[in-house]
UniProtKB/TrEMBL annotation:
InterPro entries named among the record's database cross-references: Clathrin_H-chain/VPS_repeat, CNH_dom, Vam6/VPS39/TRAP1
KW Cytoplasm (keyword) present: yes
Compartment annotation: Cytoplasm
A single cellular component GO annotation: membrane
Pfam family, one: CNH
GO terms (BP aspect): autophagy; endosomal vesicle fusion; intracellular protein transport
Classification of source organism: Eukaryota, Metazoa, Spiralia, Gnathifera, Rotifera
Organism (species): Rotaria socialis
UniProt CHCR repeat ranges: 455-637
Keyword tags: Cytoplasm, Protein transport, Transport
The organism's place on the tree of life at top rank: Eukaryota
Domain CNH intervals: 6-276
Protein name: CNH domain-containing protein
Amino acid sequence: MKYYDNILNKCQSDFTQKNPFVYKFSTQKNSISSETKDFEFNCTGSASLGARKSVGKIKVVLLSLHRVITLSDNLIQILNSDNLQLIPNIKLKNIITFAVSNKFTQGASIDMCVSTKRNKLQIYRVDRTNINLINEISVQDPIISIGMDEFGILACSKTTYFAYKSNLNSDRRSTDSLQTIFTLQDPSIMACFTTITPGEYLLNGPNIGITTTLAGTSERAPIMFITQPNDFIYSHPYLIVLVKDYIHIYSYLDDQLKQQMPLKSCQTLINIPQRNANTILINTKDNICLLESLSINQQIDQLLDTYRLQEALTLAESNCSPIEQRRTNSLIISTKKRIGLIEFNALNVIRALNLFDDINLDFHEIMIQIPNFLPLNSPWPDMDENMKSQYILWLNAFGDYMTKRSEEFSCQSRRIVLKEYSNDDTFPGTWIIGKYILERNLDRSWEFSIAKWILEQNEEELAVKIFIDKYQSESNNDLFNTNSVMNLLKPYPVALKNYLEDAVFKLMIETDEVHTILVNIYLDQIISKSSSDNDEETRCKLQEFLVKSNSYRIQSVLHRINQTKYFKREVALLYGKMNDFQQAFHVLVDELEDFEYAANYCMALSHDKSIDDRKIVAHVLFDVFLASLDKHPKEITEALLCLLGNNKVEFNFIEILKRLPSNWPISSLQTILSRAMRTCAYEERAAKLELSLNRLQNEKLNTKLAKLKRANVTVHEYRRCKQCLKQFYETSCVIYQDGSQVHVHCAK
């Protein structure tokens, strides 16, 4: 198992100059050499320090300062990190080592602690142009290593570890502020330490690593090293340990050695924190190397693949510092889910369901995985009885889990809504949800919310189908009433048009708002479209709708159409809808000169009307044709002859024949005269037949009346009125068909 990649590309340079230099490099992964993951190093600047010995320590302080602090020949100098220019008048002499705090103070400054040859620890405050002494502590032995954070200072000599808690209100020159934490008895052990977290440190001891605070307390057992370290550095959650000719990597979570890599002549370790992985900078006698850690996800994958489940979970939890955020951390949730599925597959049901319960895993996700867990390769009856009982217990436990969580999960958002299945090739698509809704009668509010979500997924056709299929009434209590659906579909013009057409022609909804909006949509499409074919198709639908519908607001539509001269035919249709036949036919005949359409519109207006009303419509068109005869004699003559010969149009031919032009030849009127004679004969016969039927009915009634008059009815003092139950005192009464008698005034 690998936690860190092998040592990467090495940077070599000529360091043979007499004076020490500071070099600035930029690093970039070499995309060509993908197998070794080499880095490319480019020198972007250099500066001479003017000292005699090589650089012993260097620290880059970015953020607001942009400074590089160097220690060479016991001399501290500070450079500008951007251009490597020395900052004048900032030098400290006789310095053994130094450390910089991780906390910036107010005014773009930072605290720095130095160890001097005079057995002093000095604390300075460094800003862009000045360095000021703020505290000084006397020590007995020279300090060779220092660590500094917001809690205080940890330092060590060759044999002793010291701690100091900052107190800037104390005297600048104090002698008893250091506290001894631990003393090494073996001079062969190199004193070194690393910071685990601010205020928590790990000290090097005799084959052990001792965790401590500045107060000298520890709540953690020591780490047992296989080989005595020469140096180490902490890179969460691992401890990188430098031993002779090797680098050992320990996990700080379980104190176990995880990996070792050979590397000779290694001198220092520097941690370079990055966003998703840590990189360790290592320098040997001749080279500078990079040690790059695997990402936390790769490490967890390797642990799960080798069934080291608890170790994987511990690693994931260590990546989330605040404990209260662990229930919402995505890495921890995904790791627990994967561990739960592994345990579920291994029939460890109790542990698996506890993990599922802990992360509120939807049981539908577990159901998807069950086919992968069952022993499908072997028939169920042929299984061992012990194995069969285990599977039965396994399924029963899962059934109990589903029953326990069913009500809770029914109130949660579906995983499809959260688009967690967007990359799942086995998911058939959103249409399967619409099919489920259409085939069942579910909660109306739930159906409406799902249809709304489907619409938001740009499945407009499917959403419209649901809205139409689930419609019940126009009641405000019904979520699927047309007003609420139309408001929802306003941002989707195509879906709105399709919905309104289905509402009008399939659901037969006759509300004026629905019909008027559909008319306006047709008008908008005609005005906006540039293609003549599409324009004519939509216009034909509009004209047909204007003729057949009786529910749209005529005046509102007429007002809009009159704003342009493009819709003259539609204006004529609207006049006809208002029974202004004269104006309607005037537009069609005189303005548009569309005689055939006028005749067809006459038949459309006559539909479902009485004979007298149909004659009124036909005579109006006849009058308009006659008025335009001189303007278009040939076309009008043909239109009149065709109109008069149409059996679907009713005329009073006696009146029509009187008004026909006298110059028309008899031959052209042959068809009209034949139809007129047939019509007149039919009307005469119908009138005679109707008269005969009325006469027969009248005779029957007279006969019945005579029989009633001849019938004798005896009225005496014992007979009572059927209505008021009183006696008769008059000689006249009213007799009902059943033979009962009532007073005259009661019958009234």
